[in-house]
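Re: the request from the purification team.
They wanted to know what the chain is likely to look like in 3D before they choose a buffer screen. I agreed to run a prediction and write the result into the notebook, where they can find it.
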Amino acid sequence: MSIPKITTARWDVEDGHTLAGYERTGGYSALKKALEMTPAEVHEEVKTASLLGRGGAGFPAGVKWGFCPPGVWPRYLVVNGDESEPGTYKDRIMLERDPHQLIEGCLLACYALGLSQCFLYVRGEMAHGQERVAAALNEAYEAGYVGKNILGTEVSVDVVLHWGAGAYIVGEETALIESLEGNRGMPRLKPPFFPAAIGLYGKPTIVNNVETLSNIPWIINNGGQAFADIGEAPSTGTRVFAVSGHVNNPGVFEVEFGTTTFRDLIMGEEYGGGIRNGGSLKAFIPGGASAPWFFEEHLDLPLEKGTVDRAGSMLGSGAIVVMDQTTDIVKACHNVVRFFSRESCGKCSPCREGTSWLEKILQRIIDGNGRRADLALLMDVCDNISPGIAWPPKQTTICPLGPSAVSPIASVIERFADEFDAYLGEPSTEQAVEVR
C-alpha cells in the first residue's frame, strides 16, 4: 500500500504557504466538509483515527479533547508551537511551508469542541515561521475562514498569534499557559492544574502540538478509519521525524508510524542515507535530547510508541540525533546536560541545583581535573533528581526537565566507562568506586 503524505504534501509546492496555493491543493475542503457535520461527528472521526499527540507525550488527541469538564465556559484551544527540543525542527518547517494546514486544523478542533478562541504560541526564534503564520492568518481572515460567521455559518472562531521569547521550559504545557498569561514561564503543579480542567485564565484548555493539529484536515477529508489503517495500532497514521547528526542526508521525513524502523530511517537511502564517510554507528538519541540514548542493538525497533517505551526510551518530539564512532561520548553527554542546566527555570531545587552540579562535574572531568569518585557522585545527583534512575522516570521536580538531564548520563556512564576512564586515568584498586 502506498503511504500518503499527510502533513508534508505541500512542502515541495512553491506557493504552498499561501492561501492560493493551499486552496489549489485542496485546502479548507475539510473545514467545508466539517461544517456540514455535527461537532460530535468531527470529534468522533479524530477518536477513530487514534491520533497520538506528536509533541512528546503521545496521548490520544481525541481522548484528550473529551477531558474538559461539562458546562464550564469559556474554554480555549492552545497550540504548542514552542518547538525547542535540541535536534527537533519538524514543526518549524510545518509553520514555514504549510501554515494554512495548521490553521485549518485549529478551526476543525475548535468546531469539534465548541470553542471560539484559539491561541497559537510560536517559539521566539522561529521568526520566519511566525511571519508565515501571521501572513496566512491575515489571508484566512480576509477569505472568511477565520473570524465571525465562518463561511456564512453561525460558527465563529478567533485565532490569536502569540510570539514567545525563546524559553525551552515553555514547551511544557502549563509553563506555556503561564507565558500566555504574561507571567514568567514556569510549570504549574499537576494536580490541580491539568489544563483540560484548569488552564488558560483558569478555564478548561486543550493544548495540542503543531504536528498533531496538522493531521486533522486529512482525517476529516479521508475519514478517521483511513488514518487508523496506516501504521501499527496504537501508533497510527504517519509521523514526521527530524534526522540529524552524523548521517549522509540529514533532514525531515514523513514515514509510516509504527512500522518503519530506526534502521530504515537512519540507513535508508531515501531517508538518512547511512552514517557519514562510511563510518559506524556509536549511539543515537531516538526522541529528542530528553530521551535516553539507544545503540546499534536498537536499530531494528519499529517507530512505535509502546515498543520504544518498553525498550527504555521514547519517541518524544520526533528528533533522532545520530553519533558515529568519532563521537566523544563524555563531551556529547556534557553538551546535553549543559543545555538542560541552562534552560532550567529554577522553580524546583533538585533541577535548579542538580542540573548545574551535573554540568560542573562533567566539565571538571573533561578539563582533566576529575576524581574517580566523580562517577559515583554523578549517579548520586542523578538519583536525587530522578529516584531509581529508571525509565519512565520518577521525579522530584514539577516537570520532566530535571530527569531529562539524567538521561544522557544514565545511558552512557557504564556502557562507555572506558571513555570516562580515559579522562580520569586508569582506576587503581584503592580508587575503584562502584557505579550503579
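For the purification team: Confidence is low (pLDDT under 50) at residues 428-433.
Please add any questions underneath this entry.
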